[in-house]
Every structure is written in C-alpha cells, then in structure tokens.
Amino acid sequence: MDFSSDLTLSRPPVPETSATEKTLLTAVGLGLLALLTVAFDADAGRARLSFWLGLLLLSGGTLGWAWYKFGRQPAGVQHNNLWLRGSTSRGSVAWLTAVVLTGFYVVLYWFSNDDGQGNFGPLNQLVHALEPASQALRHRPSDQWFLYGTFYTLAVLVMGGRALWKYRHSPYQRIRTVSVMFFQLGVAFLLPGLLLAFQKPEYYFSYFWPLKYEYLFPGTVDYLLKDGGPGLGVFLVFWSAVMSLVATPVLTYFFGKRWYCSWVCGCGGLAETAGDPYRHLSDKSRTAWRWEVRIIYPILAFIVLLTALLWLGASGAVPALQPITEPLAKAYGFAIGAVFSGVVGVGFYPLMGNRVWCRFGCPMAAYLGLLQKHFSRFRISTNGGQCISCGNCSNVCEMGIDVKQYAQRGEPIIRASCVGCGLCSTACPRGVLNLENGPREGRYQVSQLIHADSLRILN
Fold first, then answer.
1. Using one digit for the tens of pLDDT, what is the confidence trace for 115-162?
2. Which residues pair with 433 in a beta bridge?
3. 437 by DSSP, 3-state: which?
4. Higher pLDDT residue, 457 or 240?
5. Is 380 helix (H, G, I), strand (E, B) or coil?
6. Contacts for 81-85 with beta carbons within 8 Å, 24 or more apart?
7. Helix or strand or coil: residue 256?
8. Can you give the pTM of this predicted structure?
9. Which pLDDT does position 42 carry in this prediction?
10. Do 201 and 233 contact (CB within 8 A), yes or no?
11. How many Å apart are CA 233 and CA 201, to the nearest integer?
C-alpha cells in the first residue's frame, strides 16, 4: 500500500510568498546581479554606478523584506517553517548560498592580491569602485581588504536591522544588536580607517590576543611602537596587553563571555546578524560536542605556545627558534586565520549554523569559555517546574547546547561554549530561563532551589 501521498498531505504547508515579498526579494536579487556585473565591466564610471546601485538595492530590499516579514506580525520568536524551506534546512538554496560564500572567500584570500600595479584579479573592479570612499576615509587607495571590510560592515548593519525587527519585543536583544552594529561600524571599520588617514598604524581596538593573535607578537609590538610614536604606540601596546591579560578575565568573571562574544566581537556580530537565519542548524549531538573540545582547546594551546616561542626567538635567548617561528606563524594564519575563520567559519553558515568558527576554531572563545566555566559569576538559571518541553530554547541555540535538557531538570546552564546571546530565554514562552550574574556561592544549586520552591508552592 502506498502511503507517500498521505505523508505528503500530512506535512504542514509552507505559506505562499506574497507579491510584495516577491518584489522585495527581487530587489535583493537585482542588487546581487548589479554587483556581479561590476566584476566584468571595463568602464570604471559605469562599474562604480552599478556598484552603488547594487548596494542600494541589496540593502533596501533586505530591510524592506525584514519589515514586511517581521514588522507586520505580532512580536515574538517564531520559527516560520525553518525546517521546511530549502534556504534554511540545508536544501538546494542553502547549498548554493554556501558555495557562493565559500567561493567569495577563496577568491578574496588567494586570488585577489595586488600584483603591484593596482590589479586585484577577479575583484579588481569591485575594489576600484570603492576608491572614492577609501580615499575619503583612509586617504589611501582601496584594496581587497577595504572591500571586504565594507561588505562585512554592511552585512552586520543591514542584517542587524533585520534582527531589530525580528526581536523588537526583547530589550536585551535590541541593545545587544545595536552594540554589535556599533562596534563593527565605529570601532572595527571607521576608527582603523581614520588612524590610517592620520598616518598611524591600522589598529582594531575590539580585537586582541588570542583572537588577534599577532597583537602580542614581538614584531607587531615593535611596529606599533615605531609607527605609532611615543604616545599612541605605547597606548596601543598597553591596550593590547591590558585587554588580553587583565580586562578580559575581570569582565568575564562578572559577565561571562557574553560581554565579548555577543556584544563586541565582529565575528560574533556577523554570526548574530547575517547568520541569524541559520542558528537552528547547529549540531546538538554529543559527538559534535566531543569534536568541539578536541579541536578548539588544542588551537588555544597552539597559539599560547606560538606566542611564547616568538617571544623567545625575538629575545635571542634561543637562537635556534628564529628560523621556525615565522613559518609557524604563517601556517597558523593560513590554516586558522583564513581557512577556518573565513572559508569555513562564514561559508558554512547555511549548512552547519552560524557559529562554526566560534564553536570549533576561535581561540578567544576557548579562552573565555574556560574562564566562564570555572571562574565566572555568569549562569543561565532554569525553572524546571515551568518547562513545557516545547524545544524552542534548543532550536535557537547557536552553540549546539541542548538547552531543553537542562530546563527539564531545572539545572543551571554553565557551559564553556555558551556565548550568552540570550535567545533561549527570549524564545521561551514560559520564562523558564534567565541570564544571571549572581554570586559564585550556590552557582550550581540556585536552579534546583528554585525548582524545589516551585514544587512546594504547587503542593
């Protein structure tokens, strides 16, 4: 007996796309097409016009679609057939998106270097289309990294607008989204450009060791002191050391790793905005967790060892280290800084979720995670007596944590991987989950006490 037709009929239907939504998505598609034509247009003036028209259509269409999709319906986290759509359930659209993103990173990293004559390969016309903007901000010619920074910042801002519409009912999510938008635009894009305009070192204040691993390398320290001058150079080195070794542990003690991973970091900012449609795709199996531990902590150990070896090599105390430290640093930059954080970390959003890099490769996440788990006041408390096992919390967890299992047992969530995005609490219809920075005493027992009090009241 053939049950295939019955199974097909039993599936919840995906709502039809309205004419307005199709029009807005068409604007997004035309924007992408306009950007694609720039790469093949030999006329510089026309290419520049197409470039800015493409960005306008892409940004306007996305923001208009976000308003239409989320602004016209009741506030609240709604899953909107995520597992039925090809774009968000590892379907054909998701695979196509992953191929395009991965391809862009491959071209950016390995086929777009300046040939010495201002030619940037396949991205040449796109790079030169930003020449006026680069000159205005940085007083220097555009390059592939300025192009990438522009695209990156625009993605955070535009998709941040989408997140503000989607999570407008939650003050925590609104403030957190504005925070990552501010740090990306102001601190990670405009401020480094202004430093270059004043003939100072290009420096990113929102990144530090071990994420920006080279900031404590001897060569970088010498560069900052030399080009930054006696005032700014010393301050930049001081900032790197204090933020890496003092401020980070202190802030993590009080607020957990969320102060950085969900509020400041540009990688986290892109994940929370552009990667938000894919957060439910994170693997929550124990196998994935085991691989997470096997990969991320050795990467942290390697960068600690590499930093120590570079300092020893630079000091001259161990002359034999000097020939091997530079190749080690280049190998790390290629494997972790380019392949893992860029090609895999962003390119695989549509297939593995939006925090692949943060879960498996980021040394900063590993460092903060150890501090959070063993020395922080931060926790997510749960009230098992109120949990209805709907699974919304687990579905929105981008770090692969099966939150529902903790909520059902009334156990606090104290995990090294948790970035404190708060979406589990935002998505909970019963208010079971709460982000807290309570005292360390009773950190592991507070939720059980709440659960016991709830049962006592019910009885």
1. 888 899 999 999 999 999 999 999 999 999 999 999 999 999 999 999
2. 382
3. strand
4. 240
5. strand
6. 81/12, 81/14, 81/15, 82/277, 82/280, 83/280, 84/11, 84/12, 84/14, 85/14
7. coil
8. 0.90
9. 85
10. yes
11. 8
